[in-house]
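Same chain as my last thread, 274 residues:
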Amino acid sequence: MSGNRFRYVLVLIALLPQCVWAQYKHTLYDHVTAAEDQLFGAVNEITEEYFKLDGKDTVALYTAHHRYTMDGLRLHRELVGPQVLDAYDYKYANGRLIAMENLYTQYTSPTLLSAKYAQQSRRLSTYFYTADGCPAMKVLSFNSGDGDTISDTTRFVCNKECRIVEEIGAMKCHHEYDKFGSVVTSVSESYGYASHSEYDKLSHLTKATLTQGTQTATYVYSYNSNGFESDIYYSDSDGNQQSVHYDYTYDSHGNWLTRSDGTTLIRRTITYFE
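reply #2:
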């Protein structure tokens, strides 16, 4: 499976209905857009520089920036490059996310289905909770470009552990969990997409399957002794296959500083709260 074909598949996954995509963690595309993994210590800021390894040359691709509170809540993330511009701010109350604001988004990359995409600025998602602290509703509002403000409301139905089992809005989705609280199944009734996930005893995602109709894509994950993904194997119902192996270096806190798959290198600069 060629690299271009693989990137095309990742873009298709990224375009899944948000209710399925939001629950489908740790895909390769997720690492490209928000390479976060687990963090150790009181991380303040992370700057990630992405490079393409082309023979003896190292070509800069783009830079990602993440900022956190001392409690580990993400305050800001931003992706900047010649073909990508993306930024989000996050707001909290009592440790709960109450707003996520998309400050601006613009993609002009040929890897994104050869289509230019620009999103109106300041798209705002506002979250509401019940008196018990369970998610109740999300309201998305954005400017249509002609001065009108458009709103879309998604209501949540939760189980007794306050985990979302139903999302009811422009699209309807259903989620199922294992006894440890990890999502095992997400289904978009509106579009016919479904994802199924399997985990090991440490709650690491070990296998994920995406389906729509007769089409299936499967990811199998393995981890190194530090708990980070070391290998990802991809296959689909068309017979395509791809594998990726990651090598890391680490800082004294156990967070990784570099990650390479032989074709792409990520270099991190991490600052900590004192």
